[in-house]
Structures
1.
Amino acid sequence: MDKKELTRNILELKRQRNAVICAHNYQIDEVQEIADVVGDSFALSKYCASSPRDVIVFCGVHFMAESAKMLSLQKTVLLPEIHAGCPMADMVDAKGLREMKRNHPRAAVVCYINTSAEVKAECDICCTSSNAVKVIQSLAEEEIIFVPDKNLGDYIQKKVPEKKMIIWDGFCVTHHRVTSKEVQKAKEAHPDAVILVHPECRPEVVELADFVGSTKQIIDFATASPGKKFIIGTEMGVLYRLKKDNPEKTFYLLSQGLICPNMKKTRLESVYHALEKMQYAIEIEEAILIKARTTLERMLNVQ
Ligand code: CIZ
Ligand code: SF4
């Protein structure tokens, strides 16, 4: 099938299945083009929950489809590529976290949304890169266990110095790869550009940026800014939206390493097969689901 035919078949199957297609900001251009909605994991999960459709095709990685399922229990949530996982989410497991909790019994336990349902079930509250500082500030406890991203944890600690953060040793393999040397080089090459980076980058990279934020915050900032040139320090998939919404502005990727192989696994063919075969449906064990959902819902109440 060529691209045109694939697209036509996807749209027809989507109608037959009464489905909605969601795509993360890091998905390939073709998948973003065909999606009903594009955004970050949290915005997409909320959108799915309010959608009247029976089936949600979630083009992203596993933890995102799981979060969507938790907020849309009656719906079928499909992850088109079963092996699209998040290496950072896989760096923490429930057993290890339980041990950390035993060593810090007074701490509140906060997880980044990039975690499995099993890990979320062990936590008090969840956060995203958009609301992490606000979530931590909302907690009464002084001690905070934070999993799994040490870079985001460090960023929060600097913003909320009154808290004592106990941080898991995880990181995003894609964002952690960016070095401060690359930032300096990019600055030299484009001295009049504004530097926007994701808090999953190393502290020394974050330090050199003009703005730090989630994918949504980076897109919103660049769109509202009077600036004309931007150096983008997050996964290259965001360039699609940035360029589409801001044709008069120029965007440079901070590092050629800013590509997440797991986010690139989903192709138009994957979306077609997902709808055709109704694969791969997300199932979460009941006991885990109830606890993990509470962790997610507590975050909703903070906003
Ligand atoms: O929450 C998300 O979707 C992720 C992983 C990143 C972001 O900044 O949007
Ligand atoms: Fe995970 Fe990083 Fe890929 Fe996001 S970009 S899915 S945090 S590995």
2.
Amino acid sequence: MSRILVVEDEAHIADGLRYNLEAEGHDVEIASDGRAAAERLADAQRPLDLVVLDLMLPEMNGFEVARRARAAGNYVPILILTAKDSAEDMVRGLEEGGDDYLTKPFQLDELLARVRVLLRRRRWDGVDPDGEGPRSEQFGDVTVHFDRFEMETPRGLVALTTREVALLRALIDREGQAVPRGDLLEEVWGLKPGTRTRVVDSFVARLRKYIETDPSHPRHIVSVRGHGYRFIR
Ligand code: CA
């Protein structure tokens, strides 16, 4: 059983999600405004397995909720709900640390499928989530456990989100090659290669904080100017 926080101010949507997620065997909590959600996320005594986060909320918007959680080192998977036709919101939601997104109105089946994927990839079932590549990689002082979504670093154990794992995998699989930003956007986030966003750069900055001895002089994930990034073991 997983513990899921639904952050949604429209009661009929929140109730519908609760009903259906409980039917799948999950423990569901609802926060109906951003401030309540941020407080719940800050409670380290009761960790969550997943957050379904609407962006347009009273008190505090969903961007700020996600930003605060990530800034506090909470990397619980976040599934973002955005208004239809708001590509900018979706991209910004990912930049603030969302792992996946759905546009409203969404199909319930689609939401439940996304939830299953995010939860499955979070769980340590001893199976490589993508069914390809080695389950762990070691470089420098770092060991990445792809199957556990964890990374051992000199500064301690880091829990990784699905996008962080996917980005690392994409770079490591092309070790030594300069990988274009557009390829990463498409492969890791499912966005069009031409999307104007700093999402790749903000995730690279995050990964560098975990793996680089000096993040301002990276040795493992290096920038290729005007192009993208290259992984060096
Ligand atoms: Ca709303």
